[in-house]
Amino acid sequence: MVANGKSAFIYSDAFTKYKFAEEHPFNPKRLEMTLDLIKTIGFLDADQIITPRMATQEELARVHDTRYLDAVQAASQPQANPDDFATWGLGTEDTPIFAGMHEATSLIAGGTLLAADLVMSGQYRYALNMAGGLHHARRAEASGFCVYNDIAVAIAHVREKYGARVAYIDTDAHHGDGVQWIFYEDPDVLTISLHETGKYLYPGTGEIIERGEGRGYGYAVNVPLEAFTEDDSWMNAVRSVIIPTIQKFAPDIIFHQNGCDAHTYDPLTHLSASTHIYREMPKITRLLAEEMCDGRLVAVGGGGYDIWRVVPRAWTMLWAELNGNELPERLPKAWLERWQLEASTALPEFFLDPPGSFEAIPRRAEIEEKNEIMVRRVLNGTPFLY
Q1: Which residue ranges does the record assign to the Histone deacetylase domain (predicted)?
Q2: Which of 9, 86, 260, 311 counts the most CB atoms within 10 A of its CB?
Q3: What is the DSSP string of 241-306?
Q4: Which CATH number is correct for 7-381, 2.30.30.30, 3.50.50.60, 3.40.800.20, 3.40.50.300?
């Protein structure tokens, strides 16, 4: 059930100003394409679109060092020298500086914070900020395309304003390190990250032994999965870990980071999932939100670097789930014709990748067995479950 029959869609065209460079893999065109697909398919009413505001200095400072905030603002000036900001993780190949960076990332953080307020206040049951999901940003360091950690800003806000107990689910292919470290000692913030093992993938963290510290011990849960993991094994890990953990933790609100870079098309990762997981995972988190916290669910975007074939389909399916829309089998012809003119590859016609779309993984059985063992180790090492 959806309150008022609708969910909040946090969006501004200004979100596309969070852009590092023309050839940088973090391409905001994916937001335009997804919004256009959602509109073309008729899944978005004008009154569902909520304009975000910028997060304030005080709101950002709940999770970021004030010296770092000053550095970001200085690096946002048109004549800033990238070499002056390396200490803060800025001006790197991954996270170059650009004019207006502070304003652009503050707006994204404010958008996720607004989504959380709308849900916590009961105005909306679910809210989506697909520009959000900047999960790598740390307290005093930009990292992995992420400047301000919008998720952490919003979590800290609901912790302070509402005293809420928060569950954070991260199903991006990369470990949700920034959110984890910021709340590593907080027993009222459960962080769960399922990701490709950090053996060969940025940021290299997210090992099973990272479980939290002090009173927060046991409330950081990591499930590093093998490279070339496919749908069944991925979803087995999702269901086996997320469902019992959330049910036992009993949160007041759930945040879900919906990075869609576990798809086999993604150029930056080594997983082998299809779009089927992007239909199933939002369903699980929405049902958990209904079961455990009166529906309070904030969804954000995240990674996803095949902007043509994966991101628009994945996040349209996410939005459809939040609104109870029945997904059609095919993408609208008008949308395909419009974007195929720009696309560097043939656009898929179906939301769900048809069977046989991808080559079989030779080590499938071995990968599945390793992942099953990992899941058992994760569950056995999570003390509050017992």
Answers
A1: 24-321
A2: 260
A3: IIHHHHHHH--SEEEEE---TTBTT-SS----B-THHHHHHHHHHHHHHHHHHTT-EEEE------
A4: 3.40.800.20
Supply 262's token pair.
């576990």
Q: How far apart are CA 93 and CA 385, in angstroms?
A: 41
Of the CA atoms within 13 Å of residue 170, those in its CB half-sphere come to 32
d(CA 38, CA 329): 14
CA end-to-end distance (rounded Å), the chain: 31
For 299, phi then psi, to 5°, come to: -110, 140
pLDDT digits (tens, 9 = 90+) for 272-295: 999 999 999 999 999 999 999 999
- What are the structural domain ranges in the chain? 7-381
| Alpha-carbon gap, residue 224 to 374, rounded angstroms | 8
Question: Which parts of the chain have pLDDT scores under 50?
Answer: 1-4
Grouping H, G, I as helix, E, B as strand and the rest as coil, residue 224 is: strand
Q: What is the pLDDT of residues 116-171, one digit of tens each?
A: 999 999 999 999 999 999 999 999 999 999 999 999 999 999 999 999 999 999 99
Active-site position among 64, 135, 136, 256: 136
Flag whether the pTM goes above 0.90: yes
